[in-house]
Write a structure and sequence with these properties.
Length: about 180
């Protein structure tokens, strides 16, 4: 790809941003704390409902949660659909754009646990750091197969009866 072609790619039509810097644009799209925590909960905790997010333990207000879910859906990071079993309930899921954040979220998790005091078990963080590719592949597999079992059980899963089971045990294994 030539530099001229790259310049054409940079001119995608979309919302107006403060600058053309990719870091700035990324932070404008998903960069606030609540949005990233919702993505985390969808990605690694198996959360799918408004109530799951509300009860995540982070203390988000209902109006803030509703706003962030709407914003994430509008930006194409999250999708929403009516629950087939209960039409009053909305099920949230990462869109492909959202699941592409898996490597970023993994690095943020590892960085935070390595540099700050957290509740993350050091042995688990060491395994995640050692097996980055396998963890991201497992995260993507769960997304493709709609497997809502928590990827990292120590973070806690939804209160709707999903269990860690076999898939959670596999996430902690070394995949080379």
């Amino acid at each position: 790809m030539t530099l001229a072609n790259l310049a054409g790619v940079a001119r995608k039509v979309g919302p107006k941003h403060r600058s053309g810097c990719p870091v700035n644009i990324s932070l404008e799209v998903f960069g606030d704390r609540w949005s990233l925590l919702i993505v985390r909960d969808l990605m690694v905790r198996g959360f799918t409902t408004f109530q799951d997010f509300l009860e995540s333990g982070e203390g988000i207000a209902t109006n803030m949660l509703a706003n962030r879910l709407k914003r994430l859906c509008k930006s194409g990071i999250v999708t929403s659909e009516r629950d087939k079993n209960d039409g009053r309930r909305v099920i949230y899921r990462l869109a492909e754009k959202g699941i592409d954040l898996a490597p970023v979220m993994l690095e943020v998790l590892i960085w935070g646990a390595q540099h700050e005091q957290t509740g993350a078990p050091p042995a688990v963080i060491a395994e995640l750091a050692k097996n980055r590719r396998a963890v991201v592949e497992e995260t993507r597999r769960r997304w493709r197969e709609r497997d809502a079992a928590p990827l990292l059980p120590w973070l806690g899963g939804p209160r709707t009866g999903h269990s860690g089971g076999h898939a959670s045990r596999q996430a902690g294994r070394s995949h080379g």
